[in-house]
């Protein structure tokens, strides 16, 4: 009995992992060597400009400390859906329009911000303890 229940839990866990992996593979390497020096200070709004489905200036670094407010805007020339992994937030962005995110950085770690339909990473969200 006990064994069977454990197996069920395991299967659920696998299904959850499979679901997460289904969108946006993370095996692209998270090594973003952009030495821009100063990161966005806590609460300072950041705008990520997307042209032809790609982030202008490369994948943007968004760095926060746990508890800070994450704020950024995506300006896109193409219609897509912006997906913040980890926090699992999704918002549509119209062609030539923009969409803004504002949420507390309550999950620590490094997460991909992705243009879902184009499967393009546009930012790396880093939340430090
Ligand atoms: Cu995604």
Q: How much β-strand is present in the residues?
A: 35-45%
Helix- and strand-based class? Answer: alpha+beta
**Overall tally of structural domains:** 1
What percent of the residues sit in helical stretches (DSSP H or I)? Answer: 10-25%
- Relevant CATH superfamily: Cupredoxins -  blue copper proteins
How do the SSEs run, as a string of H and E? HEEEEEEEEE
Number of helices: 1
Low-confidence stretches: 7-22, 25-41
Describe the global form. globular
Distance between the termini: 40 Å
Q: Give a short account of the largest sheet.
A: 5 strands, mixed
CATH topology: the name is Immunoglobulin-like
What molecules are bound to this protein? copper (II) ion
CATH secondary-structure class: Mainly Beta
The side-by-side strand order for the widest beta sheet comes to 3-9-8-5-6
Q: In the CATH hierarchy, what is the architecture at level 2?
A: Sandwich
User: How many β-strands, per DSSP?
Assistant: 9
């Amino acid at each position: 009995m006990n064994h069977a229940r454990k197996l069920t839990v395991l299967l659920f866990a696998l299904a959850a992992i499979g679901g997460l992996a289904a969108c946006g593979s993370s095996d692209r390497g998270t090594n973003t060597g952009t030495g821009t020096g100063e990161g966005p200070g806590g609460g300072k709004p950041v705008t990520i400009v997307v042209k032809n489905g790609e982030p202008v200036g490369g994948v943007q670094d968004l760095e926060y400390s746990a508890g800070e407010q994450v704020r950024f805007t995506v300006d896109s020339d193409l219609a897509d859906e912006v997906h913040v992994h980890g926090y699992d937030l999704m918002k549509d962005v119209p062609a030539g329009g923009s969409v803004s995110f504002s949420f507390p950085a309550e999950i620590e770690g490094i997460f991909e911000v992705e243009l879902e339909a184009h499967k393009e990473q546009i930012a790396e969200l880093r939340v430090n303890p």
